[in-house]
Amino acid sequence: MSTRFTLALASTGVALFVLTSIVPARVRAEAAAAGQAAAGQNAASKIPDLAADWTPDQKRGGIGQSFSLSDPGGRKRGQEDDIPYQPWAREKTLSEKPSTGPTPYFGETTDPQVLYCEPPGVPHIYNWPIKTKFIQTPEAVYILYELGPYYRVVWLNAKHPEDPDPQWWGHSIGHYENGDTLVVDTIGFNDKTWLDQMGHPHTDKLHLTERYKRVDANTLELDVTIDDPGAYTKPWNGHRNFTTSKTGFLRYQQICSVRENQAFTDALYKPAATNK
Amino acid sequence: MKRHTTTHRLVVALLLGTGLLVSSAPAGAHHGTANVYDNSKPVVMKGVITRFEWTNPHNQIYFDVTDEKGGVTHWTAATEPPQVMLERGWTRKSLPIGEQVTVYVFVAKNGAPVGNLQKIVLANGTELSAAGGGGGRGSAPAAEPAAR
């Protein structure tokens, strides 16, 4: 046996001793600390289980057309009491041609989601008759949608970037409150989406807060606060109710296809919109 | 539904007797500037399914209606998209080609043979509801949501 080999064997023995004695002690200490932290967290803020296939509650508001609490059906578009428009935002709203609501323009809408198959963004996506699912991990909550199908990442224990690039879904961070609520804070939006089906605009200054509250096994409620100093003079609020789906998430994919939209327009809209 | 039976018979009779032009007159229908369907009451027709498109943005039901002189009109009616109709108990096989059906449709104001389906009754009496309506192109239904 060479001296070099003996030394190597001795070194391995030392390393093994270190691994079997010191490292387990460190792991035990970390586990204990984590346990204490978890116990503290449980007492202060239990993590709610958001797992279910959520669908708009038809008995309590359905999908709605507008996020105005006073005018969910969109009948007073541009004149709602609870939307604190800046003048340009009111004018912009009134200039739009919604695809749905009391006065739908069908094939001639200016809704960018319908016209260009662009992402609806939030909170507009909750005006769609689609299901939503939450995947909760220690690092993030993933919100999955049947439309698109799109998904968002809500980073937990994280901060917004200093200067986020404006994007379709913005940058979302979140935390839990009261053991039953996920609070999502989003900035960094572009200004290309509508806030709802009624064409309410927003700018890249939009700061959106969503509070998803698990009320009981079959009920989820969403409160949104729209704070956009570029378009509105003060924050305003909206609400949606969800219940559990009978058929499950993503049984059918709600894809936006320009070709399928065109086929629908040709078959159902054009004949009805032509003067005879 | 029984209380509507007499009305529906009248509507069907009227339809058959007037070559299907029972919907209200073109209500100053500027091109794409207002509701193009009359959502005040459904028109009732008996027809035969010729095609059923189970698709986004809205399902499309194609059916033929024959008047008493043997003239055939090709109709198209929309429903919500598949993920909504699944929730209401429909499948892509709900309307086989050749099926004899009674349809309840909010029809175009201008008299075109198109509209939004409200419900459809199959030959064996099975009733499939489409309440909530088709609505806008590629988007959510036009129906007013219930109070919160």
List keywords for this structure.
heterodimer, A: 276 residues, 2 domains, 9 strands, 22% strand, B: 148 residues, alpha+beta, OB fold (Dihydrolipoamide Acetyltransferase, E2P), five-stranded mixed barrel, 2 helices, 6 strands, disordered N terminus
Gyration radius of chain B, rounded = 15 Å
Count of all domains of chain B: 1
Described by strand count, sense and barrel closure, the largest sheet of chain A is: 9 strands, mixed
Q: Give me the side-by-side strand order of the main sheet of chain A.
A: 1-9-8-7-6-5-4-3-2
Uncertain residue ranges of chain A: 5-9, 12-29
| Helical residue percent band of chain A | 25-40%
Number of strands of chain B: 6
The CATH topology name of chain B reads OB fold (Dihydrolipoamide Acetyltransferase, E2P)
- Characterize the main sheet of chain B: 5 strands, mixed, barrel
State the helical fraction of chain B. Answer: 10-25%
Number of strands of chain A: 9
How big is the Rg of chain A?
25 Å
What structural class do helix, strand and pairing data of chain B support? alpha+beta
Count of spatially separate domains of chain A: 2
Oligomer: heterodimer
Describe the structure.
The complex is a heterodimer of chains A (276) and B (148). In chain A, a hairpin with an 8-residue loop joins strand 8 (219-227) and strand 9 (236-244). Chain A folds into 2 domains: 1-44; 54-271, no CATH class. Chain A has helices at 3-44, 87-95, 112-116, 258-273, and strands at residues 54-56, 132-136, 140-145, 151-156, 171-177, 181-187, 207-216, 219-227, 236-244. Chain A contains 4 helices and 9 strands; from the N terminus they run αβααββββββββα. Chain B is built from 2 helices and 6 strands; from the N terminus they run αβββαβββ. Chain B has helices spanning 5-17, 82-87; strands at 43-53, 60-66, 72-78, 100-107, 114-121, 127-129. Classes of the chains: A alpha+beta (276), B alpha+beta (148). The interface between A and B is large, with 60 and 48 residues.
